């Protein structure tokens, strides 16, 4: 298969959007392009929302993208991450306090520039979510979310920086993409291949659309409910330590945050306790990297801006 151009990928994304499928769903589809041969040969036109969509055109584009999905381009990562980010925002609404979000973004951008991956196609974006749950999430491409509940676990700026650096570590190592690539498409691909050899009816089209929507939900659920693997979490902690040291933050801020979190986590909730390793386990691993715990020196100006920006959060 030939490499797909940026324009072709965008066109494909648009076609799938017409079908009710997001960019992440396109990624789910790519792993099984060999089964789409019959669809490409049939060349059936499907009327969807007043637009005629040709199955051969879709199949051809999907097959072209599949070659590059093994090595996802920055553009593709951006659209996948944006789709997942939209799903996350359906669950956690944004926090409206501008000063707090500005503070998080300035700090986050500074930390990202000190990472091993300072640039992404769409850039890094940081957003506080209006939720009491203790959580932070990183979607592919640099979309990073942190809840108000998580910020309350941060006694100082070094701790906030540690949380953001950890999530940047996930983006740096493309953990989100690795989770997507390991996903398995089930009924949706089968439906697409089989129904592609005949005229799509409303029932088949609805079934296909639902299947892809559910696939996107499955990916998002991995981030919200089950989380990354313990190995990925440890890798993100190691990255965070490096980023914090480069910027001038004390990596023990990560330890302070975890200690505070350990006191506030409640068993059974869908938050950091379910999606991350036990805080004490992480503290042990972190101290093995940075040595004996050294208290964070609360620099007056730094602490003042922290308190001013996050007051009431």
Give structural notes.
It is globular, with a radius of gyration of 22 Å. It folds into 2 domains: 6-75 and 194-224, no CATH class; 79-177 and 227-309, no CATH class. A hairpin with a 3-residue loop joins strand 4 and strand 5. It contains 16 helices and 5 strands. With 313 residues, the protein is mainly alpha-helical. Strands 3-5-4 form a 3-stranded mixed sheet. Mean pLDDT is 74; it is low at 1-55, 57-70 and 182-198. The termini are far apart.
Record the SSE blueprint.
Blueprint: H1 6-18, H2 23-30, H3 37-42, E1 45-48, E2 51-54, H4 55-69, H5 74-91, H6 98-113, E3 125-129, E4 136-139, E5 143-147, H7 148-151, H8 157-172, H9 175-181, H10 187-195, H11 202-226, H12 230-247, H13 252-264, H14 272-275, H15 279-290, H16 300-309
Parallel strand pairs: 3-5
Antiparallel strand pairs: 1-2, 4-5
Helix pairs in contact: 1-4, 2-4, 2-5, 5-11, 6-8, 8-12, 8-13, 10-11, 12-15, 13-15
Count of separate DSSP helical elements = 16
- Biggest β-sheet: strands ordered side by side in the sheet: 3-5-4
Strand coverage percent = 5-15%
Order of helices and strands: HHHEEHHHEEEHHHHHHHHHH
Helix content: 55-70%
Largest sheet: 3 strands, mixed
**Coarse morphology:** globular
Average pLDDT? 74
Please report the distance between the alpha carbons of the first and last residues. 51 Å
Low-pLDDT stretches are 1-55, 57-70, 182-198
Quaternary: single chain
Q: What is the number of beta strands?
A: 5
Structural class: mainly alpha
Count of discrete domains = 2
Radius of gyration: 22 Å
Provide a concise account of the structure shown.
It is built from 16 helices and five strands. With 313 residues, it is mainly alpha-helical. It folds into two domains: 6-75 and 194-224, no CATH class; 79-177 and 227-309, no CATH class.
